[in-house]
Design a protein that fits this description.
The protein is globular and about 50 Å long. Strands 1, 2, 3, 4, 5, 6, 7, 8 and 9 form a nine-stranded mixed β-sheet that branches. Helices cover about 30% and strands about 15% of the residues. Strand 2 and strand 3 form a beta hairpin. It has a single domain, classed as TIM Barrel. By secondary structure, it is of the alpha/beta class.
Length: about 250
C-alpha cells in the first residue's frame, strides 16, 4: 500500500495450532511451527508464587482436569494438571506450559511471539515487568509483541521498555483507531477481524504507522479478504489454511 508500512502478511497461530491440538500447550505450538506459521500467539497469567504460565482463561476448569483460579495455584500445582485430554485422548498428559518453555522453543528461530497479557479481570501485580525481564533473558526483544485488552498494561510495558512492541486488543467498531493507538504509544492494533473490512480504516492506520493484526480469522473467505487488504498479520486457529491461501495466491 503506497505510503504505508505493509510487510508480507504474517500468519500467526492463535494459541498455537489450536484447531488441531489443545490450545496453549507445547504440542499446539510445535504443530504451529510444523505448519510454517510466521508467529505464535499465546496468553500469559501468573501463579500464586509468581511464575508466568500460558493459559487463556483465568480459571483452569475449561482446559484442564482441575478447578480454580490460576492465581490460587503454585507452579508445582499447576504442572500437575492434565491440559490435553479435554481436547482428545491422544493429548492426555499435556501440561500448562511456563512462558519460558515457549521462549526456549523459538529463541533460535525467526518466529514472532505475540504474548497477550491476561491482566483483567484478575490483576497480576508486576506481570509486565516479569514478562519483559524474561523476554530480555532470551534476547528476544525484537521478536516479541505484547498485546492486551487491558491497555493500562500496554502503557506500563512502554514505560518499562519503550522498545518492546505493543498491540491494543479491541472488539468495537472504533472511529479513527490509529489516533487512539498513537495516544497510548501502541505499535499495532489487534481488532476483532470484522471491524477491519473497511479500506479507509486500513489506509488510515498504515499512513499513520500503525500495524494491523486482526483476530481470530478462520474462514477462508475472510482470510483472503484480509490478505487483499494487506494487513500485517492474521491471527488464526488454522495456520496451515492461512499459509496455503497466502502462498498459493502470492498474497502480498
Amino acid at each position: 500500500m503506497e505510503g504505508g508500512i505493509v510487510i508480507n502478511t504474517l500468519i500467526i497461530a492463535h494459541r498455537g495450532a489450536s484447531a488441531y491440538a489443545p490450545e496453549n500447550t507445547m504440542v499446539s505450538f510445535m504443530k504451529a511451527l510444523e505448519m510454517k506459521s510466521d508467529g505464535i500467539e499465546l496468553d500469559a497469567h501468573m501463579t500464586k508464587d509468581g511464575a508466568l504460565v500460558v493459559c487463556h482463561d483465568e480459571r483452569v476448569d475449561r482446559t484442564t482436569n482441575g478447578k480454580g483460579f490460576i492465581k490460587d495455584f503454585t507452579l508445582e500445582e499447576i504442572r500437575e494438571l492434565d491440559a490435553g485430554s479435554w481436547f482428545g485422548e491422544e493429548f492426555r498428559g499435556e501440561k500448562i506450559p511456563e512462558l519460558r518453555e515457549v521462549l526456549e522453543l523459538i529463541k533460535d528461530s525467526n518466529i514472532l511471539l505475540n504474548i497477550e497479557l491476561k491482566n483483567a479481570p484478575i490483576l497480576y501485580a508486576g506481570i509486565e515487568k516479569k514478562t519483559i525481564e524474561m523476554i530480555a533473558d532470551y534476547g528476544m526483544e525484537e521478536k516479541v509483541i505484547i498485546s492486551s485488552f487491558n491497555h493500562y498494561s500496554l502503557t506500563e510495558v512502554k514505560r518499562i521498555n519503550s522498545q518492546i512492541k505493543t498491540g491494543a486488543l479491541y472488539m468495537a467498531g472504533l472511529v479513527e483507531p490509529w489516533i487512539y493507538a498513537k495516544r497510548i504509544n501502541a505499535d499495532a492494533l489487534h481488532p476483532l477481524f470484522y471491524n477491519l473490512l473497511v479500506p479507509e480504516l486500513i489506509k488510515g492506520c498504515f499512513e499513520n504507522g500503525i500495524m494491523l493484526n486482526p483476530f481470530t480469522v478462520d474462514d477462508e473467505r475472510y482470510i483472503s479478504a484480509l490478505l487483499n487488504l494487506e494487513v500485517n498479520g492474521i491471527i488464526t486457529n488454522y495456520p496451515d489454511r492461512a499459509v496455503k491461501i497466502r502462498d498459493n495466491t502470492g498474497g502480498n
